[in-house]
Amino acid sequence: MTLVGVVMGSKSDEPLMQPALDMLQQLGIEYEVSVISAHRNPEKVREYGVKGEGRGLEVIIAGAGRAAHLPGVLASWTTLPVIGVPLATSELKGVDALYSMAQMPAGVPVACVAIDGAKNAALLAAAILALKHKKIKEAYGKYRLSLSESYREPLSGQREARKRTKK
Fold this sequence. Notes:
Layout: E1 4-8, H1 14-26, E2 31-35, H2 42-51, E3 59-65, H3 70-77, E4 82-87, H4 95-102, E5 111-112, H5 118-130, H6 134-150, H7 155-166
Parallel strand pairs: 1-2, 1-3, 3-4, 4-5
Helix pairs in contact: 1-5, 2-3, 5-6
């Protein structure tokens, strides 16, 4: 069953959102991808938000640049968690999109990751879904464990190297 809706404002946003798709796939999370402009097709955005939960979606990831209204508009039409990904598609390198998402009014929350942080958006979606779905919890836990193992450094070797350089 499709659990995550990944929405972007323009087809040109796809390369910046690809890390989210890759991570969702790696974790075995079913997703759908839609291109819907909040400005050019607001009725379609409304329909997506209103009908998403009924179609089985549990989280929406929305990537947008510039004024970046897409995540906020979606959040206004659903009670599903919406994770905004500010995209660096403007002269302001995504700062405009970041402010747009991070400054949502009280009552209409949008979670917001870093500029071009699509991978973290997928990981946040996985953390949310892991509260309910055992397989996702296991996959997410395994991924997080792999991070700690890949950054583990042999402390004894480092201590020896430091002692030698101090002499």
